[in-house]
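Hi everyone,

Forwarding the result from last night's run.
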Amino acid sequence: MKAVVYRAVGDIRLEDVPEPKIQEPTDAIVRLTTSAICGTDLHFVRGTVGGMKPGTILGHEGVGIVEEVGEDVRNLKPGDRVIIPSSICCGNCAYCRAGYEAQCDRVNPHGPQAGTAFYGGPEKTGPFQGLQAEKARIPFAPANLIKLPDDVTDDQAILLSDVFPTGYFAALLAEITPGDTVAVFGCGPVGQFAIASAKHLGAGRIFAIDSIHSRLVGARAQGAEIIDFEKEHPVETIRRLTGGIGVDRAIDAVGIDATRAHRGPAAKEGEMKKGQFDLELAFVAPDPHPKDDQWRPGDAPSQALRWEIDVLAKAGTLGIVGVYPETLLVFPIGKAMQKNLTLKMGNCNHRKYIPKLLDLVRAGIIDPSKVVTQHQSFSSAIEAYQAFDRREDGWIKVVLKPAGPPLKLVVPTETQIQTSAEVKSMNRRRDPQKRTRPAKTKKKLRTARKRTA
């Protein structure tokens, strides 16, 4: 079968690999119908998150159809359509039962202190072969596969595998309450869902900070107040727009590949800290292998963190879901302490949140498929990785299909990513039972007009 395989920093390939087989009674084999490329995958290829084992199949987002189950899989059968949560859990340990599946004690073969296990990650996370393949082996399948109803499309479901739950988790970490003013740093897919989740939790104002036009377009379409950090200083702008107070909550959806400003008012500050950023980068990516403009790590690993601490009001909360490796040793802890900030962070407990978010999708409250901007076949997977890595405008979320030609690039418009209210309104218009009432009303009005005439 075909799969996207990691070989070294700056070296990924589309290869023929052996098909997976049942190894344990709780395993299942899933034929992937949809996968996706995530910013976390780029951390591995750029070398900013190390420890990858050559030969690992990449990818941790998947939707597919069950082909085979082990004898101890009692809740699924061949033919079932399923979502694969990105983080892997056993479903039985104390952490899983408490809803902290990302900290499962059993699933990581390196032991309870090894951290989160997920598909297609570094050796320390398992490693478990990833989901950018035609088929995948799913361990502990009863806990790690969620059945999909027929009224949820693959494009909606693939966003439920990782980025939608992670964005929602970020909003919970930030402790957003009704009326809060929120700053979301990073407007990629996770940032877009952090904005949507903040709105769902009742945020009063949301600032969205990025430098890529299409991402800011998507954020503005959701009602966020956008800030391009290459055109204005995000900290100064937010302070000015909040009367000098700052924001109540901030979300980091950026992670280790943050970049500093190279133009505009923030560029001078970035240039002054270049030496510090270069030193940080030497620790987190000691052996980068960029090829021209490809696979280059972000040039300011702690930049987003520094800005987030600065924009928060006193006694505010920072929720971090951007991926940072253990090799990053720099954090503005002194400033955070002096401001009495609350810091919350971690890997998303996907299995906990997917059922709830699936209900929101089915109810038409949020349509996650609006974030998908590209569909590509596996034959174009490496080229899709390259375009996504270059941060090309319009490449927000790339979905991979196991077969078929690549589809045309879709650049988000002002209305492509819709707010919860807009989606509700749209679904009401599409609902045939709810359309009959306006039609009857119009008929009565026409009859009334004829009588009065």
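Confidence is low (pLDDT under 50) at residues 404-453.

Cheers,
N.
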